[in-house]
Design brief:
Blueprint lengths: L1 H16 L13 H4 L1 H6 L2 H13 L9 E2 L2 E2 L3 H10 L2 H7 L19
Antiparallel strand pairs: 1-2
Helix pairs in contact: 1-4, 4-5
């Protein structure tokens, strides 16, 4: 839910911000002003997913999070799980159908 909601919030904000530019302008949420190399290497959609994945990246020693007797999924699963189930990720990175990050529709888990 979080990856999907954040993605749609980003695309909605981009549409509003670029509405006066004919819709063809890059937005990158200000990344180009602070890191031109990063903005040049990724399209807006890819930047969103890279940023979301970095949020969950942790050193191997911290990969399993224990919070008051609750064990959470590892960092790798917190990234791979949602990204592999979100067709917009596969589209942004041009993952071929059947690849780990672009399973066939019947194998994808979509709640809503």
């Amino acid at each position: 839910m979080g990856i999907r909601a954040g993605y749609y919030a980003m695309t909605t904000a981009r549409k509003r911000a670029t509405a006066g530019s004919g819709g063809g302008g890059r937005w990158a949420g200000g990344v180009a002003a602070t890191n031109r190399a990063l903005a040049a290497a990724f399209i807006d959609e890819q930047l969103y997913f890279v940023s979301a994945a970095q949020f969950w990246c942790k050193p191997p020693a911290q990969a399993m999070v224990v919070d008051r007797d609750r064990v959470h999924a590892t960092s790798a699963l917190r990234v791979h799980g949602p990204m592999s189930q979100f067709r917009e990720f596969a589209s942004a990175f041009r993952c071929p159908r059947g690849a780990p990050y672009h399973p066939p529709p019947g194998d994808r888990c979509e709640l809503y």
